[in-house]
Design a protein that fits this description.
heterodimer, A: alpha+beta, MetI-like fold, five-stranded antiparallel β-sheet, four-stranded antiparallel β-sheet, elongated, B: alpha+beta
């Protein structure tokens, strides 16, 4: 009698429950239970495992997503405050607990969390004077321009301590020695001030067309006595307009002047004689804001009509530094009035008279955030030291605050793949340089040179591997003796199993120096060796029939091994001769002088050969399979019609197996794209973009292996490396899937034949 | 001639030549590695080269090459130069020296040349003249000094061994215990307990451990005072140097060795290579920790990958409803085998280390934070990453096996009233066992040779401790480990002295190749046997 076991009975009696079994019922129930349990367990396990494997993509995407997520801003409740006068500047501490506010009537400290009243600081040095100008606050010292012609530098620092009740932050503001800019005592209209190692520089205007520059040099002698030397200079501005803004870089080297006619002038402060470089710019409207980004190489220029642009000082044609416009950002709806740069990255806020605030990123030229006009326009803003918040003083005296979530401002699709104009470069470029020496180093994270490197390495590897692998596969499948083939295939499979670290090691330490000696030989070897093989084939035909019949057809390969060795030897000898006779003895010198190409020891020839070695077995195995699987009646028919074995192979077998060969090459491509150790060890790993076969490159995969251990988790570099991994994943997965589909269709076709 | 081209034979020969080239490449590569690696431990004779200006160089001639002369007219016979390994890095600054053959006036092999393998500064080549203990000469003259050296070296080595075992064993165990107590105290503190009997006991225990530590240190000092023997030796050029006996690992006189002695020496060196710890930033000594790390990682990976692969394959082939969805999953799993290994490594970093490891740290090891326990690379994460990397291999192999089991076998079992589970477990899986084994071996071979994903998930150039030791819980899955493949990369490319390290890298390569090729050959043989058997059973 049939025993119900789910599977068997289902087909027999659909819909009917199996009759309960009387005999051995407990045991049967247990077996049945196990069966059902196992079914569920295997199904669940299988689904989970397969899901986990396929989850790789999602995990990588999840790590990449924060990079491209748009920045977000969240308004915080405003704090009511009254400073009693027009506010000129504001600064805040890194926890955004306090703000130091400069108003016309003096300096105030106010709590940003609310609750405490505004505290006006006692500054005896201020005296009866009013504050008429202020230098840009932020990472440089704050200085006040006074109505009596003096400049009062302030030392502002915040000290924080964590206490049980929360974080307590204290603002310490102390006045430094004032500088007398204008002995006559006219009020200061515009001011720029920096303190640098060994002194400070202030530039100020008291009249529309003149800039006063005072440099203080302080020197501490060995005995501890400090000498203080003040130099004062007056600079006439040769412009039709009046001076509207001033800025000095933090080293005190360069002075920048904006005018009411929209011109931008620049003077080298350390020069013996102050000389204004020709004014630049064609905005024709008053420049209202001049400010530096971190590192003091990029100048942000805002004007009366709302235009915002970045400029850089680059070496010009005659070696003189020259101001060059880099990016123009979207225009504000009203005049730009406020500016605050990040102290962490190259982003900066600008605010216009209508109250709109905007965060732009200088390197990418992209706008990250926009805070639309509020009811009151901001008269002063401060980007918090950690770049996680913005504080503004409204026209009505209220303190407005926002939380800013923008962890990776420097990354956008354009930054990853496009050309960017980095600071200090004379033109936009694709650059990968993730770490640098100095603190204000800007990471350059263009993946294009790495992608280029990957594709270059793959190209040269396939250039080597495809001819060798396909010809070998054709020979093995069509002409080789079957018994010999049974031996050859495992050998090639062994070749596939060689760890790539071994290939990379040999390529880097043995092949690279060896190849360096025989480059001309390598280049002529395909021609010379082929010629020798053809001569051998011809010679073989000339031999008497009796000799020839000794060789079993399909074992020519044994004869060919010495021929190939001889061919290679001959090529190297030829190469040596070419080097001596035609290239002047050292091909590297010849390359450099005649072709203008430099020779790296670890170059694309080395990678091509080593990675080609790794790819040959992959292509060979798949191509050989599809060539061998061509239905035998096709070949038999062709041979019966009088075609030679070569004609059969090329005209019948190759076309019908071509999809398989295509998929073999695709899979070889996938292998070469992702190969890590070989490219890591056999190239110089310099991210250059040159197709020259004599140069190295840096590939995506090697780059990940080198840089991921050093990248802090969750940081920009970390996530960009995940983008690199995602690229590799998508490239290989897509190519392999295409290859697999082609192969499946081929299999169908053979079945139909 | 036209016939010749028409016959197509030249093209056949050309394709054959390509195959010949492939074969040449494989054999050439293996030969290259073997020749360079296996010869390394064979003691080479030490030569004394007297140059035309009277300079004397003593060392092993390691290479001879033609001097590149781009300006010489064609046909001039090439001139050669020798690369001499003269050692004595502490005095000379570098181990190697190139000497033009034309400059050499005399070459000889003095019998008394001594080679000393040292713990620092590489090999010494030269002659020894005396052995001193403290300020007293124990033996003078080359022969006497050699005899005394042979006698005392084993004692010096034993002393060194003892000091090492105190440093590593006693003090190591002491540190380990103190660290555990410290972490326990910190854990209590995190939970709010600041005093109590248990905490007092822990403090007392720490104090007693400290006392024990002091004792060990005193013993160490006493033992170190006993290391007062020095060897007086002259290097080429006549300069006299003193070498403390405790810095010497091995002393031999290669020019006096017979073939038999050399073979014995070779065996000792080979044994040291596979069983000893590395010295001199991995360029000397052995690779035991790397072998151990590789093997342990592959084993953990196998333990993980086998059940995963089998369950997934059985599900796909036996339980899942066949249809376009399962075909798509199958293609996807197949293609994962082609996804670059470094991508798996990146996944391991993002998911295993930071997501899972970070969580484990927060839940179970809060007392050690901010030092990560599992939240950093380690052998477990490396093995898991490789398991994920190789699971498609096992799935594909198992599925192939399952597909090859004839339908009749399953139906027969079902007809005999076995449940589906029983059929799968008792009938199908045993028949598929060789396939599973093939897949597993291929997975192991791939895992043993893979380096890129390990570089970012837990391999280090020098691990302070093995992931398996005598301290509870014995298996330390969170530890970083060494790996043969990474060893090759590190020593070959990151080592400060690549020329000296190169033979060592070749030898490591031989070892790695042996393991990988052995596994692969086993898999191939197994598969061939299996195919034959299935062919028979299908008839």
């Amino acid at each position: 009698m049939p025993i119900s076991t789910g599977t068997v009975t289902e087909g027999v009696e659909p819909g009917l429950p199996p009759p309960p079994l009387q005999v051995f019922s407990t045991r049967f129930a247990r077996r049945r239970f196990f069966d059902v349990a196992a079914r569920h367990a295997v199904t669940a396990g299988g689904v989970i495992i397969i899901g986990a494997i396929l989850a790789i993509l999602f995990v990588i995407v999840a790590e990449v997503y924060p990079l491209l997520r748009p920045a977000a801003v969240k308004p915080l409740p405003p704090v009511a405050a009254n400073f009693g006068a027009h506010v000129l500047a504001i600064d805040t501490d890194e926890y955004r607990a306090l703000a130091v506010v400069v108003a016309e009537n003096g300096v105030h400290v106010v709590s940003l969390v609310g609750g405490a009243p505004v505290r006006k600081l006692e500054l005896p040095a201020l005296g009866q004077a009013k504050v008429t100008a202020v230098s840009a606050p932020g990472y440089r010292p704050l200085a006040l321009g006074l109505s009596d012609g003096r400049v009062l530098p302030l030392g502002v620092s915040f000290s924080g301590a964590r206490q049980a009740s929360g974080r307590q932050v204290e603002a310490n503001v102390r006045a430094l020695d004032p500088l007398v800019m204008d002995p006559v005592g006219q009020p200061i209209r515009r001011l720029a001030y920096v303190a640098h190692e060994g002194g400070s520089v202030a530039a100020a205007t008291v009249s529309p067309k003149q800039v006063l520059v005072v440099r203080v040099a302080e020197e501490t002698s060995l005995l501890g006595a400090t000498t203080r030397e003040e130099t004062r200079r007056v600079l006439d501005v040769p412009s039709t307009g009046e001076v509207s803004t001033l800025a000095i870089d933090s080293r005190g080297d360069h002075l920048y002047i904006g005018t009411t006619t929209g011109e931008l002038a620049h003077a080298v402060l350390r020069a013996k004689e102050l000389r204004l470089a020709p004014a630049k710019g064609g905005a024709k409207t008053t420049i209202t804001v001049l400010g530096f980004l971190i590192g003091d190489r990029t100048l942000v220029v805002g004007d009366q009509s709302g235009g915002v642009a970045t400029w850089q000082l680059l070496p010009g044609a005659e070696g003189e530094p020259e101001l060059v416009p880099i990016h123009a950002f979207p225009t504000h709806h009203a005049a730009v009035v406020t500016f605050s740069a990040s102290r962490r990255h190259k982003g900066f806020w600008t605010g216009d008279g209508a109250g709109e605030l905007r965060l732009d990123y200088a390197t990418t030229g992209e706008t990250l955030l926009r805070i639309p006009s509020t009811t009151e326009s901001a008269t002063a803003i401060a980007y918090s030291p950690k770049s996680d918040g913005l504080v503004a003083v409204g026209a009505g005296g209220r303190l407005l605050q926002w939380d800013i979530d923008c962890p990776h401002p420097e990354v956008s699709l354009r930054a990853l793949f496009g050309k960017l104009w980095y600071e200090g470069y004379d033109r936009p470029a694709y650059v990968w340089q993730s770490t640098g020496g100095s603190d204000d180093f800007e990471a350059k994270l263009s993946l294009t040179p790495l992608l280029f490197g990957t594709l270059k390495g793959t190209f040269y590897a396939l250039l080597v591997a495809v001819p060798i692998a396909l010809a070998s596969a054709l020979y093995a499948s069509q002409f080789m003796h079957p018994r010999l083939k049974a031996m050859i295939k495992p050998t090639v499979e062994i070749m596939a199993a060689l760890p790539s670290v071994v290939l990379g090691f040999l390529a880097g330490l043995w092949l690279a120096p060896t190849i360096e000696r025989i480059v001309p030989g390598i280049i002529v070897s395909p021609v010379v060796t082929s010629a020798l093989v053809l001569m051998a084939a011809g010679g073989w035909r000339a031999l008497p029939e009796g000799w020839r019949s000794r060789l079993t057809p399909g074992t020519e390969v044994f004869l060919l091994i010495p021929v190939v060795i001889g061919g290679l030897w001959l090529s190297f000898a030829c190469g040596h001769w070419i080097d001596r006779a035609l290239l002047g003895g050292d091909y590297r010198v010849w390359l450099r002088e005649i072709l203008g190409v430099t020779y790296d020891q670890r170059n694309s020839i080395v990678v091509g050969l080593a990675m080609g070695f790794a790819v040959v077995p992959v292509i060979f195995t798949i191509a050989e399979d599809s060539l061998s699987n061509v239905p035998p009646h096709l070949t038999a028919g062709s041979l019966a019609l009088g075609a030679t074995r070569w004609q059969t192979a090329v005209r019948v077998v190759l076309p019908s197996a071509s999809p398989g060969i295509f998929s073999a090459i695709m899979i070889g491509f996938g292998r070469a794209v992702g190969e890590t150790m070989i490219v890591l060890m056999a190239t110089g790993n310099t991210p250059v973009t040159s197709w020259s076969i004599f140069n190295g490159f840096r590939a995506l995969s090697a780059n990940i292996a080198v840089e991921l251990p050093e990248a802090p988790q969750g940081g920009t570099l970390f996530r960009v490396l995940f983008v690199a991994a995602l690229l590799l994943f998508v490239m290989t997965f897509a190519v392999n899937t295409a290859a697999e589909l082609v192969r499946l269709r081929l299999r169908e076709r053979y079945r139909a034949l | 001639m036209k016939d010749f081209w028409k016959s197509g034979d030249p093209f056949v020969w050309l394709t054959g030549a390509m195959l010949a080239l492939s074969l040449l490449m494989v054999t050439g590569l293996v030969t290259l590695v073997l020749v360079n690696g296996l010869g390394f431990f064979w003691p080479r004779g030490v030569e004394r080269l007297v140059l035309d200006d009277g300079t004397v160089v003593v060392g092993e001639v390691s290479e001879r090459e033609a001097i590149p002369a781009p300006d010489a007219p064609l046909g001039t016979p090439a001139e050669y130069r020798l690369q001499v390994k003269r050692g004595n890095r502490d005095v000379e600054g570098s181990d190697f020296l190139w000497i033009d053959e034309a400059r050499i006036a005399r070459r000889e092999r003095p019998a008394d040349v001594v080679v000393l393998e040292r713990r620092e500064w590489g090999n010494f080549y030269g002659e020894i003249s005396a052995l001193r203990q403290a300020d007293r000469a124990v033996a003078t003259g080359p022969a006497e000094a050699w005899a005394a050296l042979e006698g005392r070296l084993s004692e010096a080595l034993r002393l060194h061994e003892e000091i090492f075992s105190i440093e590593k064993g006693e003090i190591g165990a002491n540190n380990h215990a103190q660290e555990r107590l410290r972490l326990r105290l910190r854990g209590r503190e995190l939970r709010g307990a600041r005093d109590g009997a248990e905490i007092d006991a822990a403090h007392r225990e720490i104090a007693s451990l400290q006392a024990a530590y002091q004792q060990s240190v005193e013993r160490l000092t006493r033992l170190r005072q006993g290391q007062n023997e020095r060897l007086v030796a002259t290097i080429a050029g006549g300069r006299e140097v003193e070498i403390p006996l405790d810095k010497i690992v091995r002393a031999y006189r290669p020019n006096r060795m017979g073939a038999f002695a050399k073979a014995g020496f070779y065996a000792t060196k080979l044994w040291e290579f596979v069983s000893a710890d590395p010295r001199e930033s991995n360029t000397e000594g052995g690779v035991f920790p790397a072998i151990f790390g590789t093997v342990m990682m592959v084993m953990i990976m196998s333990v993980l990958v086998t059940p995963l692969g089998i369950v997934a394959a059985v599900y796909l082939r036996e339980y899942a409803k066949q249809g376009p969805f399962v075909s798509a999953v199958r293609i996807a799993v197949n293609n994962l085998a082609g996804v670059p290994s470094i991508v798996f490594g990146v996944f391991g970093v993002g998911f295993f280390i930071y997501t899972i490891g970070g969580t484990v740290d927060r839940w179970f090891f809060p007392e050690a934070l901010p030092t990560p326990t599992f939240g950093t690379g380690g052998i477990l994460w490396a093995s898991l990453t490789l398991a994920l990397l190789t699971v498609p291999v096992v799935i594909v192999a198992t599925e192939e096996g399952l597909a090859a089991v004839p339908r009749g076998v399953r139906e027969a079992s079902l007809a005999l009233a076995a449940t589906k589970f029983e059929t799968t477990w008792r009938v199908v899986l045993p028949a598929v066992l060789p396939s599973i084994l093939t897949g597993l071996i291929l997975a192991m071979a791939r895992a043993a040779g893979e380096v890129a994903p390990l570089m970012i998930t837990g391999v280090v150039k020098l691990a302070p401790a093995l992931p398996l030791d005598g301290f509870f819980p014995f298996f330390h899955f969170e530890r970083k480990f060494m790996h043969l493949g990474f060893h090759i990369y590190d020593v070959g490319f990151q080592s400060p002295n690549v020329d000296v390290a190169r033979p060592m890298v070749y030898m490591t390569t031989v070892l790695l190749l042996t393991i990988v090729l052995f596994l692969n050959l086993t898999a191939i043989l197994l598969r061939n046997r299996l195919r034959r058997r299935l062919q028979v059973s299908a008839v």
